[in-house]
Amino acid sequence: xxxxxxxxxxxxxxxxxxxxxxxxxxxxxxxxxxxxxxxxxxxxxxxxxxxxxxxxxxxxxxxxxxxxxxxxxxxxxxxxxxxxxxxxxxxxxxxxxxxxxxxxxxxxxxxxxxxxxxxxxxxxxxxxxxxxxxxxxxxxxxxxxxxxxxxxxxxxxxxxxxxxxxxxxxxxxxxxxxxxxxxxxxxxxxxxxxx
Length: 195
Description:
Layout: H1 3-13, H2 21-26, H3 30-50, H4 53-65, H5 67-78, H6 96-105, E1 117-122, E2 128-133, H7 136-149, H8 158-161, H9 178-191
Helix pairs in contact: 3-4, 3-5, 4-7, 5-6, 5-7
């Protein structure tokens, strides 16, 4: 039996993985994907509570580079209220094939965020305020990395969330930029006597 006959026979009986991107996205086992992401987030919270910083970094790296993390990030971004709003590149991932190809394009090397699309929204006093709209790929990458930060995870219990301190700025939003994260990591290391 040749390779062509074997592939034809497997296709005839419905065996094997789907070869088309649309089929790959539609046949994803979302409960398993969510369970894997949740399991890694719980391990991250536990490592934080125990002060095992090397383990924490390794688990965060594992989560942000995992197939499940990418799939869930794309699903959350492409199935929310702003799913039909394109960024500066004008692309939206509306079809299952586009979602699958977009998920595969999410790499961890050479990532360069695209500029935001600037839109002006009218205020109640008649003036307009600027709003920056990111591209879908930037949103997905941001969502993927937020899984590893822990606190915004809906799958963590309140005790596990308490392992991630909530720091608020003047706007009342959590500080999520790199400088605040580095500063907080230094504070935690000093408080644990590691620095």
